């Protein structure tokens, strides 16, 4: 799974003027703190992960900004998991998490639009996105608040494994690919 700034940066390319709940939806699936729950909500426990994602695409109403954010999040993580699986295995869990955290912090401190977005997300009343049983609004609210605090206080030095050029290329390509997939669906 990637880090918050990958999700928000890609989401911004896909729908720049989206309502704040769309961006919160782009973080909501990571509110689960139990690995088995997260694996389930991210379809990692299914052999047909892409088919499950395509089914969710078909069930998610276009007017449902929060649901569209969740869909975007899950799509990005499917792509990310395939792309970085080898580096994840090579690095191990601790170093992998350190490197994606470094990349996320670096992006936070080098994107002029992001602080205002995090502030808007933190200020959004949970009642506006309290629509998914798998992502309880209080857990989502706490996840957004804690991640905002972490990004503010964590200085961002570029990751050695996922440097800024890699991150930018991933974000741009994933946003373009998502828009294509979102229209017609593609089973990988």
Beta-strand segment tally: 0
Overall mean pLDDT stands at: 91
As residue ranges, the low-confidence spans are none
Q: Indicate the structural class.
A: mainly alpha
Global morphology: globular
For this structure, the quaternary state is single chain
**Residue share in helices?**
55-70%
* Through-space gap between termini: 18 Å
**Relative strand content:** under 5%
How would you describe this structure to a colleague?
With 188 residues, the chain is mainly α. The protein is 68% helix and 0% strand. It has nine helices and no strands. The protein has helices spanning 4-14, 20-25, 35-41, 49-59, 65-91, 93-110, 114-123, 137-153, 164-184. Helix 1 crosses helix 9 (164-184) and helix 4 packs antiparallel against helix 5. The radius of gyration is 15 Å and the shape is globular. It starts with a helix and ends with a helix. The model has no long low-confidence stretch (mean pLDDT 91).
What structural keywords apply?
single chain; 188 residues; mainly alpha; 0% strand; globular
Short description:
The protein has 188 residues and is mainly α. Helix content is 68%, strand content 0%.
Layout of helices and strands:
Blueprint lengths: L3 H11 L5 H6 L9 H7 L7 H11 L5 H27 L1 H18 L3 H10 L13 H17 L10 H21 L4
Helix pairs in contact: 1-5, 1-9, 4-5, 5-6, 7-8
